[in-house]
Amino acid sequence: MPSSDPDGWAEWVGDSLREHESERESRTGDSDAAPEALRRRYEIREQAGEGATSVVHRAWDRELGRAVALKLFRESAGFSEVARQRFRREVQAAASLSHPNVVTVYDAGSEGGRLYLVMEFVDGRPLIDRLKDEGRSPADLVRVLARAARGVAAAHEKGIVHRDLKPANILVTASGEAKVGDFGLAHLLDAASELTRSGAALGTPHYMAPEQVRGRSKDVTPRTDVYALGAILYEMLTGRPPHEAADVVELYQKIAHDDPVPPAKIRASIPADLQTICLKALEKDPDRRYADAKAFADDLDRHLAGEPIFARPRGPVARVWNKLVRRRFEVVAVALCAVVVLALCGLAGVATVVSRRTRRALNDYQVANDRANALWNSAVHMVQAPTFDDGLVRQLVGEAMVSFQEASKSLPDRVEPWLMIAKGRLLLGQEDLAEKAWKEALARDPESFAARFDRGKYYLGTYASLRKAPDMQVSDGRVRLGRPPPESRDAAWWRMTGEAELIQARRARTVDPTGLGYLEGLLAYGQGSYAAAAKALSGYAVAMPWDSRALGLIGSASYLSSDYKSAVGYFSQALRIEPRTTWYKARGDAYCCLGKLAEAIADYDRSLGLEPTDVDALCNRATALQALGRAQEAELFAGRAIGMHPNLARAHNLRGSIRAAVKNYDGAVEDFGNATLHDPFYAEAYNNLGNVLALRGRVDDAIEQYDVALRIDPEYAVAYSNRGTARARLGFFDKAVEDYRAALKREPRNPESLFRLSECLQALDKTPDAISTLRQALEAAPEGWSRKEAAELLLKKWAGN
Amino acid sequence: MGIGDTSLGGSGPDFPKTAGDMIAGARDPSSRVRRAAFEDLSRRYWKPVYTYVRLAWAKSNEDAKDLTQAFFLWLLEGDSIARYEQERAGFRTYLKMLLKSFVGHQDEAMSRLKRGGGIRIVALDVKDVLPDPGAADPERRFDQEWRRALIQSAVEQVRKQWSSADRAVKFRAFELYDLLPPEGRPTYSEVAGQLGIKESDVRNHLFAVREAIRSEIRKELSELTSGPEELAEEWNAFFGS
Fold it and tell me: Cβ separation of B238 and A14 shorter than 8 Å?
């Protein structure tokens, strides 16, 4: 091997990979190579379809001489061993199905770690395509659905439930024959975990029944399939599924609780009988639906034959009554449960006959539990003091957990010890052990609100903390929030796992509204709805005054929704528990927004006291000084920031702005130039540089800078406006108009832009437009707008002509 | 020669996690995590950076090494990496832009390095490896070295993943074949003999390992590009005709 380049091997590997690329393409014709063993028996022809977790090929079975469809699951799908076993069992059952309306399964298995399915090849299109076809008579579609339902009925007879019926897995041949496929595959996708880990991989849940949405897999019966058939029928009749929503969480809510709009309300031509069949299949309560697909198919056929159907429509009164009864039943059920639990605890004083051993266990449990709680409470108490010994607190928590574990041994069914253990583990930073503890808790009580809440708090809390708040910008004396950053994949994962917990929490037995509000608040915070977040979170702060992290979060939410007074309050509370630079800075920012600059500077200094090189504190302090009119000091501070972080573009940009404000244009140009050197993508710096150049009369150069800024950030409204001004100065009024319009598109009622636009329009002799634009400017202007008089004068002048 | 001998710019520990992790680490509030991420970064990309600097600036090996050091130090101290937004631009493009702008002000850069006391992030152990500094286009060479670095990283990942008993032999077959220059390669049957397996197995193992490497490269590229179009472009640059 030549010694001149020890990394040359990468070149050779690159060559091999290039050859490999062409080889694999010729082997399989798609991006997922079929395992060797399968290729020996089946000649892969072409790709027939693709999903998130699988690819379907048309193939030829060499052994039996027939066309087949080979469905290969991607290796990356990462199915667990349990899921695979279930797959094998279910598919074996499905393979026993033989019916003209069912896609026959010939073979299934696992090859090279990848699951596969060999099925009858159906030359047809999925029903979903048919639904989009024009010129298909509704009766045709209903006929097709009735046949599909017969296929499903055959499966029900054998005790097989499809679980994942949707238009995509009903194939329709050219002659109108329907074939249902993919029986039992829903087992591969376990509701909460797979859904949240792979994001939207499952596809639309529009056809999921309420009991499926609730995650109650034991309640899935043939009636679940009936619901799906009803949903498909609904879509056939009205053109949309029974429920639609902006996101999955909302959709689940609607499926579980809302009644669908009766189809005839959407399309008056729908026959009453069809509507009845449809709504019966879509009943929330499975017992009120058709018992199985056969009953559904029978009624459909009766309708198609013009005969009376068996289902009876339910009147509006009955529907409302049902809803009330449903709700009341839930409340009653909760009350019952509470009594039962109390009775078991022996705390309600209900006389029960208990064996001596049970009494002894109960006693041991009480002792251990009491001890654990005492230790835990001491720890909590310590944490609320202004200063505390971190090591001692951890020790107390550790011992508390040991006691909780003892308690659990005495009464293994109890959930509470595990909840406390999870809390303790989180405190000690042992997050995977916390997860284990929650699993234990939920194993004992799957409907425990507390477990869902704690875990949801952890997930959504992490989500909220990952969602960096958008930049604050100060311009025209107003503080504006920049756009929130796009959600990273990490953050999305935390959000989805958290949302799943939130859904489960809502369905728990005894829901605590404050806790629920807290979870919803966390979610809202991460999604940028700060006002809603602050509101939802505040109830929690009252209940848990020692949770400094929560307080800090509510402070941020208040700040971001412009409630600066509350923000100061919350940060102060948080800081009393735990002095942190983040919160000092945040409180300082809030003081700034309240105009209390002296207090703000004091807070920045406190933050700098804890961390002297914190660039945020330095920069904000400089800004505060500038706002106080102490420009020289501000410049010095900004200079300090630059000195400590010479490569930080933001610091240069800041000093440039300060210098520009005191008309030190040369200095400003230098600073902005440095900012762009250190960060070539810093749109704001280019914009600022443009501004200063324009002030110096170098308008052409200024336009160049605005061009760059806009190339980097095509949504930068202010840059458009500035460029418009520059162009107008050079007499290019029509271009200026374009720019102002672009600015207004992004910031519709900006009075400055409107004013300048009107001037340009007037210069172009478009007086009527100019006048109306100027009027809009005056309407949109805030109190005491500096240009108000000028605008009014102009208006008079133009209107007078 | 074994793969372990290849000096990738330092006696650092395990090869890094994914590129995405590295970029995320650069934004981490903890300075320890940030430093580790930047060590990662410099280990991965010192070669393309060095190559560019050497060709674009046309100085000696020593000066080029110094400037490479200065560049990574500059990245560590600034927030350019933290400001990187994947949706806007591919990482290769971004890094190249930063580098160009940095080299354009190299005198300043060098004086900054001296002021910084010459803290070394990574022990560069590069001999004079450029065969013909005068003839090549610095940008093209940067891209070339970048792609090599990507392949190296992918191979390392697969090596780590395929270290268990049943898969190690497959990777070994790959090592014995693909990691040698085309003129110096053994035949399949020679490799089979060395490992005590069948010749048809050799072919299959090579296919499997190349598949795995391909998959790693794809994963890595998806974390370093701004979207499907750019991913397709980069992919073509790697594998296109």
Answer: yes
